[in-house]
Write a structure and sequence with these properties.
It contains 15 helices and 14 strands. With about 375 residues, it is an alpha/beta fold. The structure holds manganese (II) ion.
């Protein structure tokens, strides 16, 4: 009995004293340019975060925004400054396993900046998982999903190119649903382009669209029913994030699900949307919500309100994708798959063994922490100088 109690006390006393927090910007090339409504990118940038502890454990995380500050206001360069100047000094000498406490302290010192905070929280979870030799999903409730189906997202390109890319994926047996970015051109032409794609492919696959806030309510009311009639199966964030009333009216207008992304950053947002109700599905992202724990709170609110959850992407590398996989593996509320295709869009990654995909499904890593290991040579090669 005594031996048992000592063992338990030792486990409870796992401590990791933070010795250093380092940040490095890396720029990774893409397989093809990716066209959002606002910008086109041919590389994706990351702030690689490393938290080293006195016990010799290194936790790794990444900050990433989708192709620049247009989406959420934070930029890679700004994130590095906020971490180096304010958040890293806060963590030095603290116990890395007290993730909730440290994350709360970040909010006390720095308002907003969820993308920056998410990278540090991710690294804390990685360090903790490595120290206790468990994948992060074991710290978050245990394994629920072994793998998660991945929707492939296409840029806002011409119908011919989009159809070609989708047919290539279908022929290769990869991915069973596809998301088209919209909003980069005049609505009438944009809708005609998507209807062309839907006409060719509706029988073979599931198509969804993401407007990234590009339309106002009148435009959305005019054109979304045409997309629905043409076979589009889901509409993501047609109007600006703040316009909850418009989202509510559009969700009532359409039979197909309306997904909220830019409208749902925080658990508070989730509660407002659920009460409205302004969405059928929430797009979850560790980045915009400031970490894994906040996303878990949002998922709980969604589940309690009967709203589905989808694992969204900010075009993470294998590091952020592994963090998402670890979290979503433990969430029964993930009912609408994910779009964590970042590593598949990257021509180069900075890990020795990336996350794995099989039959269009992201495989949950089972190694300790995030379950991925840095390739130091690649980090040196792609770091910004
Ligand atoms: Mn989106």
């Amino acid at each position: 009995m005594l031996a048992d109690r000592e063992h338990k006390e030792n486990v409870a006393l796992t401590r990791l004293t933070i010795d250093s927090v380092d940040t490095t910007i890396v720029d990774l090339p893409l397989h093809r340019p990716h066209r959002f409504s606002a910008v086109t990118i041919d590389q994706q940038s990351y702030v690689l975060v490393r938290i080293r502890t006195r016990e010799g454990i290194e936790g790794v995380g990444e900050a990433v925004v989708p192709g620049g500050p247009w989406w959420g206001g934070e930029s890679i360069e700004g994130i590095k400054v906020v971490i180096d100047t304010y958040l890293a000094p806060l963590l030095l000498g603290q116990d890395a396993t007290r993730v909730g406490r440290l994350r709360k302290a970040m909010d006390t010192l720095v308002a907003r900046n969820p993308f920056a905070k998410a990278s540090l929280e991710m690294a804390l979870f990685d360090a903790w998982g490595k120290a206790v030799d468990l994948p992060i999903y074991e710290l978050l409730g245990g394994l629920y999903h072994e793998s998660i189906p991945v929707t492939w997202a296409l840029g806002a390109d011409e119908a011919k190119d989009v159809v070609e890319e989708i047919e290539g994926k279908l022929d290769a047996g990869q991915h069973s649903s596809f998301k088209l970015k919209m909003g980069a051109q005049d609505p009438a032409r944009d809708v005609a382009r998507v209807l062309d794609v839907a006409h060719v492919l509706a029988e073979r696959t599931s198509l969804r669209v993401d407007l990234n806030c590009a339309w106002d309510e009148l435009t959305a009311t005019r054109w979304l029913p045409a997309l629905e009639a043409g076979g589009v199966e889901l509409v993501e964030q047609p109007v600006p994030g703040w316009n909850i009333e418009a989202m509510t009216r559009l969700a009532a207008l359409l039979q197909i699900p309306v997904m909220a992304d830019e409208s749902v950053w925080s658990p508070h947002d989730a509660l407002v949307l659920a009460r409205a109700p302004a969405a059928d599905i929430f797009a979850l992202k560790i980045t915009k919500s400031g970490g894994l724990a906040a996303v878990r709170r949002i998922a709980s609110i969604a589940g309690a309100a009967g709203i589905g959850c989808h694992g969204g992407t900010t075009i993470e590398s294998s590091i952020g994708t592994a963090a998402s996989a670890q979290l979503y593996a433990a969430l029964p509320e993930i009912t609408a798959g994910c779009e964590l295709f970042g590593p598949l869009l990257l021509a180069e990654d900075i890990v020795a063994e990336g996350v794995q995909y099989r039959d269009g499904h992201l495989q949950v890593p089972h190694r300790p922490g995030l379950g991925v290991t840095l390739d130091e040579g690649k980090v040196r090669h792609y770091m910004r100088r």
